[in-house]
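User:
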Amino acid sequence: MRDATVMMASAARAIRSGLWHAHARRRLASSARERAQRELDVRLALSRAVSPTIAAVRSVAAADDGSVSVDLALRSGATPGRDALVSAATSALRALPWVRDTRCLLSLLPPRRASDAGPASLAAVSHVIGVSSCKGGVGKSTVALNLAFALARMGGRVGLLDADIYGPSLPSMVTLPEGALPVVRSSTTKLLRPPEVAGVRVMSFGFIAKGASRGEPAPALVRGPVASTTVQQLAAGTEWGELDVLVVDMPPGTGDIMLTLCQSVGLSGAVVVTTPGKLAAADTAKGLELLHQARVPVLALVENLAYFEEPSTGVRHRLFGRSYARELATSAQLAHGAAAADGGAAAEATEAGGAFELPIDAAMTEALERAQPLVLAAPDSPSARAFARLAGFVTRAAEEGRAAHNERPNVSYRAADGAVVLRYVSGAQEGREYAVPAARLRASARDAVSASQRAAAIATDGAEPLGRARSAAPSGPKSDAAGASVRPLDISPRGNYGVAIRWSDGHQSAIFPYDQIIELAEDEERRAQGQAGAGRALDSGVARAT
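Assistant: Predicted structure:
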């Protein structure tokens, strides 16, 4: 009897234990579901308050007591308005009824290349932004210098490349640390180690030219093709490391060097510098056309020396003529705000559209005389504040334009039918394919003009599409010495607009824009449809005759 009682007691304890554990499991499952739902609520609230182009939600922790901790990972160190970002995220979280306490941390994502074009030394550089002008003497180098250091002041990891071989200005605009010259190579990568100035990695031909370490760099006595190659090697041969932005001070004009940079480094965008007046606007329009043909987005337009403001009255005088910034921004397909005019509100509206005006500022001249960026020498000056706004605008525009870079198609060779295939892997045309027989694409390169001829044509009248063969879409296949057996051996992106192909017959000088490949593919489709229609008509005629 006693044994039976013991057994019954044990069974009862087992049942109670099982019920307790089952209840505990249900409680844990319910708590886990509740936490998962709360984390989902948090992510949804943050998605409404924080733009995904600015920051990613790296982690979320929602406790049972109503406390929430989130980690927002900034996509760029050069992100303006960090306090406002945290405030917006915190307000969104506190709007949730169950939240009692919030903690918002900011971290930084590693640089992620916006473009797969460019050398290996730029693989850890998120954005390469060119600062260009259609002619010299407009303050382009000054804008590039202060843009780079304004980005660094915002917390960005920044580099500055002076790409002007013939007249490098960076050595006279910054003061290098003691012992920075001569520039040395890394023992492991064999790349040049750029000097650093206030956290910005800087490189110029003036730092490596003969006599640079003595402060007497020799002039570059080289022809155009050699100069282009030198600039390309300077960009590719420097150990840039991890950067949010590499600012490239482009050579003035629309020649070979600018074209080479557009093709070789994969620009995320460009900041175009001009001055007031009709003639300057006409020249700038040509530079905008070249960038458009090269598919380099214009992120912002800067009109330097736009006005002089009387310190005592605040009245602005436009000494060099009226502003064309708004018209140029519109032609560059930039969104624009209100027309530029005297007055803060209108100026801010214009800047919101990507057109910035810089005044004639004595502080700028004084800073340059001391070989200092204005944004460091006089950070509270009107021009320095304008550069800060420009830096914030460019950062946002570059990140927002990343999606457009991701929509660039892939080009490959399909051996099964001997076709070069252009395929969109993302964006509105995702999955769309265009196929061109390799022999026909190779034949279209026969009439392609050289890089220098293309640049000259665009600079003259803008009529020649960049890199396009003069007979881009012939009416039918051409007989060509290359023969039907020609095939691509290597296909590599060039800039944002096309690919370079090394062919089995040894040809490798032409660049094939994506538009040209698409035109040829569509022409092939039309010919195939026409032949199919003619075949059906012939069959129908034969059938009626019989």
